[in-house]
Design brief:
Chain lengths: 276, 276
């Protein structure tokens, strides 16, 4: 999916919601254990209940890998269940030397080889340009590079001052030379509200993937105040607060209710900004 | 495996060789395609032919993931074939917020959940302490943190100067507060020979995992000149130059010959340093 198509989806759905799929076996409703693959059934029902309210799904690969071979199978089948007009993100935080990143790109972008073809993958920037480039060789596929993350450890290295700026600012500035806003997004945590103004100066046109609204405590209004641009420019992720709104038989309905609340908030924000 | 046991293995085998398992379908010898899983057969024969000459194996997860579900199955079965007295490294370059890194730790360290229990995993440092901690909660398991990598892109962010030192130096200095040399190693590329002296000042006791000897052009002698410590302190990885020494029926023998050359060089180095 290209940038124009993504913005069209946002306008059509009046939403820039990304639903994070982080399935934990202990949180799967008990009644789903009658199915052969309860986690897959859970993901499918969440997707079916929310896909008119969101523009993206973001399965986090760690949660699937932790379940071994069956988990990887569930990841592939979850990807296959995401409607093709919805932006799909492999939240995988990969990145390695060039020949290895090319393999990761095959794993997540090349359906013929791996059984999956996500629209985007999250990538860690530490190894630099040749660790990112191989992902960008895939047409209309996106790299979502970690910039300023939502967790406590963000301050350990991302905020270090260098002669040109903080490390995370350097990540945005330098990586912007490798690609355009047509294929490059940045991860900026919702818990970093005050920094969005600064980030928009460095990356005026790039979409930002914003985790941390909900369970991690970030504020949607604060994110949008400085984060919105004239193509929306935001994909705001909410995971646990949607998918685990209930752990009972009504989990899918309750997930929909939580997604709807966010969609309605987003509709107001888009409307106030004259984007819809 | 703990540090003392690792050093014992190094002394017994007179080797600090790590064999990188980066299987690419195009490089698998043709005669192996009679097997149901040619890649697994390739890995097994490489392991069988070299395991008295090396102290570690390092499957690179990207190469397995690129082959989809069958690839993940091959990774699990390759791990299972590594003798339990040999240090096993999941070269996965993972790292995410705490609850997610805990899932990655299960994926690679918790056999009951995932089918695999490597001794160590490579981790990207960008997200800081809480992205590394969950791996360290597993007894006798190791984090091998990216410090100064072997690829061209190492200069994009790792060498940025901060008030306290270069970014990679900060990674070593700060992460050394999170754990000891009993569970924390660093990745330092063999192509960074001149920096080893400096790195040993920052990390006198930590093992260093050193990729880049062979196909990437690093020199073993240069690495050892400043990298050795009184417990050896080095795991030197060689991948492609061993496993693809031949792509014909003699591939395992030729892999052994290449591994033997490195082991013999290492034996001389260990002997000159009075470590054996």
């Amino acid at each position: 999916m290209n940038k124009k198509q993504l913005f069209e989806q946002i306008k059509n759905k009046k939403s820039f919601l990304c639903v994070g799929l982080d399935p934990v076996l202990e949180n799967i409703p008990k009644h789903l254990f009658k199915y052969d693959n309860p986690v897959l059934e859970f993901n499918k029902q969440i997707i079916d209940a929310t896909n008119d309210l969101c523009v993206a799904y973001k399965p986090n690969t760690a949660f699937f890998e932790s379940m071994g071979l069956k988990g990887w199978d569930t990841l592939i089948k979850t990807w296959a269940h995401i409607p093709k007009d919805i932006f799909s993100i492999a939240d995988a935080k990969r990145g390695d030397i060039g020949n290895t990143s090319a393999m990761y790109a095959d794993a997540f972008f090349n359906e013929e080889k791996s059984g999956m073809s996500f629209d985007a993958i999250t990538v860690a920037p530490y190894m630099g340009e040749d660790s990112v480039g191989p992902f960008l060789n895939h047409k209309d596929k996106w790299v979502i590079l970690l910039a300023l993350t939502s967790n406590a450890g963000h301050s350990d290295f991302q905020l270090h001052q260098t002669p040109e700026g903080k490390v995370y600012e350097e990540v945005i500035r330098i990586s912007s030379k490798w690609s355009s806003s047509e294929q490059l997004m940045f991860v900026v945590g919702a818990t970093r509200g005050a920094e969005f103004k600064n980030i928009r100066k460095l990356a005026p046109d790039n979409f930002l993937l914003v985790p941390g609204v909900g369970a991690q405590g970030g504020s949607l209004a604060e994110v949008c105040q400085h984060g919105l641009n004239n193509e929306c420019g935001l994909l705001v992720n909410s995971g646990r607060s949607i998918i685990y709104a209930s752990k009972a038989e009504d989990f899918a309905e309750r997930a929909r209710e939580e997604a709807l609340k966010l969609q309605q908030e987003m509709e107001q924000i888009l409307s106030s900004a004259h984007l819809i």
